[in-house]
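name: query_chain
kind: protein
chains: 1
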Amino acid sequence: MTATVSFTIDSPLGPRTATVALEREGRGEPLLLLHGIGHHLQAWHPVSGILSAEYEVIAVDLPGFGASEPLPPGVPYDLTTVATALGSLCAALGIGRPHVAGNSLGGLLALEMGRLGLVRSVTALSPAGFWSDAERLYVFSALHALRAGARALPPAVLERLARSAPGRAALTGSIYARPGRRAPEAVVAETLALRTATGFGPTLAAGGPVRFTHDLPGLPVTIAWGSRDRLLFPRQGPRAKRTIPGARLVRLRGCGHVPMNDDPALVARVISDTAHGTEHAGTEHAGTEHGTASGDGARIGA
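structure:
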């Protein structure tokens, strides 16, 4: 069940109150889940049930996305401000320093929270911030196009498209390797979330010059990249590994930019391995191009 939490954040304008929506389930060490730009916490539904068997899972709508309120007027959506606000949320929830897993923008925020000493471990799935200038221009253009498309679609057309596998591919094929697997109602909901996200424009504007350039020594970190990511290309993974030499770099075979839906069990295992501090040298390949992630099909280090 979704709840809302209000808490005080530090900002360049001084203390302000922020209100976010979240879902909280399970028991164990806390695990914070952060979605990507234009998405919402429901992106984590395919894996949150798996993870809640071992962790207290807190999936959050980032400020200005999903059901969360925008940041207070004048408070910037820059990386450090938002990451610090998430740290304040954790304090308000009484969970201290959680494990954190994030996708895309959420992955970049997870890494920044690691830099600030706010977390126990970081799993970053196709994180932003390791792009070249050309790649950044490409992804920003693609995101603007996705937003424009979501805003232009009449509700009746959106619902009709979502009812067919080709329609779901047209709507979400840029972020999922297997868009036909998405439930029609989930595709409608995430398209509406992209359409109405008040934080979309300010976040993109703040993210233009951003590159993550910090090592995170002593912190368990996994960088995981879908082999079929069409937004942030897999070649950015080795750059992240060079930036954070102690990180585990995992290639998620057969997964797209938002891998939680493409192979939920595999993504859950990668997150759990990171939280347990499992260490593997070099680059690993997980899963298969057919997306098998149960039993012998899910192999870390295969």
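note: DSSP finds eleven helices and nine strands in the chain.
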